[in-house]
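2024-03-11 09:14:02 INFO worker-7 job=invfold-0412 stage=load source=structure_tokens
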């Protein structure tokens, strides 16, 4: 079951990372210049949360991971570890920010919105059937 949880977590990460990358590009290029960073982050969070809500149980079921199990928690945790690693690497590559600067982002309003999405991402495989 552990191996399936890791595979499911990797697929979960990849799918949501691609969706998040596309939404993030939209936020940065179209929404933030027009509405500001906080409003743009909130607008991005809505479809991102919907994607998390929709895909977490689908991927878990696809890999045969039973609802409300430790294996679902592991799927979410492993996906989160991959996501944070990718976010730190991408932030460094695209914006030149250190991991410390990336962490400092969580002190802003948009950082709090992002932290809530990370928590939802990690918990949703376990929360949804």
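2024-03-11 09:14:09 INFO worker-7 stage=emit residues=129
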């Amino acid at each position: 079951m552990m191996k399936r949880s890791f595979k499911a977590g990797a697929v979960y990460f990849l799918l949501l990372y691609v969706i998040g990358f596309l939404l993030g590009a939209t936020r940065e290029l179209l929404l933030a210049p027009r509405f500001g960073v906080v409003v743009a982050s909130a607008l991005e969070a809505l479809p991102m949360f919907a994607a998390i809500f929709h895909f977490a149980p689908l991927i878990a079921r696809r890999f045969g991971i039973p609802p409300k199990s430790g294996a679902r928690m592991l799927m979410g945790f492993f996906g989160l570890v991959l996501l944070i690693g990718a976010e730190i690497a991408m932030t460094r590559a695209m914006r030149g920010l250190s991991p410390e600067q990336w962490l400092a982002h969580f002190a802003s309003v948009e950082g709090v919105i992002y932290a809530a999405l990370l928590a939802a991402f990690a918990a949703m495989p376990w929360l949804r059937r």
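2024-03-11 09:14:09 INFO worker-7 stage=report msg="Helices lie at 2-35, 37-62, 70-95, 99-104, 109-127."
2024-03-11 09:14:10 INFO worker-7 job finished
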